[in-house]
Amino acid sequence: MGVYPEGTRSKTGVLLPFHNGVFKIAQKAGVSVVVLHVSGTERIAKRTPFRATDVRIKVLDVITSQRVCGEKTDMIGAYVRRLMENETEEFQHILKEHLDEGLSYPAARAKALEIVSQISSDILSRPNHILGLEYLKALDRYNCSMEPMTIKREGDYNSPSLTDGFASAAAIRKALAEDRSTEALPQLPENVHDVYNKALSLGTAPCFWNELTPALHYKLRMSTTEEIHEIAEVVEGLENRILHSIDSCYDIKDVIDFIKTKRYTRTKIQRILLHILLDIKEKEVAYFMNLPKMPYIRVLGFKKETSGILADLTENAKVPCIQTGTGICHIYIDESADTEKALNIIENAKTSRPSVCNACEVCIIHKNVAKDFFAHPGNPENIELVDIKKGGKPKPSAL
Fold first, then answer.
1. Whole domain around residue 368: which residue ranges?
2. Cα–Cα dist 28/26, whole Å
3. What predicted TM-score, i.e. pTM, was given to this entire model?
4. For 225-245, what is each residue's pLDDT tens digit?
5. Is the domain of 339 the same as that of 251?
6. How many domains, the chain?
7. Is there a contact between 158 and 170 (Cβ–Cβ < 8 Å)?
8. Helix, strand, or coil here: 308?
9. How many whole angstroms separate alpha carbon 71 and alpha carbon 68?
10. Same domain, 93 and 135
């Protein structure tokens, strides 16, 4: 069902006052709201009866049913209005002009925003600035009370120099690729040095795009068009272009150049190729993106002197708190897991380089597959199965 929140069409193209009845209907129905921006309808009356009129419809967002039912209608209305005001007719017209000139979508968008907002496109086109703007938009979207703060960076994050203030990630990667680790490592925390040097001695570092070329070709040649279409961020028939790339290209750089278009940046193509390698599907990403809140918190690192804060977080968090590098390490085997792969992961986690990866202490298995899992001939005999409900008595158990 389509509804104008204004209650009628705008005859001038300017947004009219909103009425919140549409959002009350969605709340009572318990459904999501798809926000569409329709432009050009104001010209229809002027071109009747038989003159063609261009009308554009763009999907701006999908507000989940959880959010619709959990927020006040006036807050939802205000958010929708802000979305629509950011997609004005003027902005869309300028954007189209720059795209027609041959600019890439990000460059055209930056130019259009410069004209509309009077903010330099040099600022709007920089990756870190774009990221910062997205953070601000997210704060606004979720009506968050957090106060954003800016911290001026020392040095240029695009500089190839390792001596220009804080070195950029690009400069560090370049030095490592050129076997200049003695110059690059001083730019990294000291505790990283030993980890990197050990990985270097084992031949597992550094790893760059070229090292992934054989794996990517294998994955693409073993995949169908339908399977690539299911990968996260693959849209608008891009799966065909991706599969055709390996007919004439081998190196990943050439594959990316083949796939790239004005609309899709190199960064986006790289991300899609990683999704293909890791088999990350759009439906999986959508599931987590549509959750009303994150299902867990993962602590990536902390200082020893802040352990009290970490303990307080763990005790008072409203969702599970997973700590990395401290405490007891768990592996959970879901009912959908491949038993052979799961057994290999368990054995590897317990016996392979425990000083580095914090060897696994506990394995939790879904009750629906526990019986078959314990009876599997590949189950290592040296892994003791303990019933956690029986105070440590050796007996297979599952949750």
1. 297-390
2. 6
3. 0.55
4. 999 999 999 987 899 999 999
5. no
6. 4
7. yes
8. helix
9. 6
10. yes
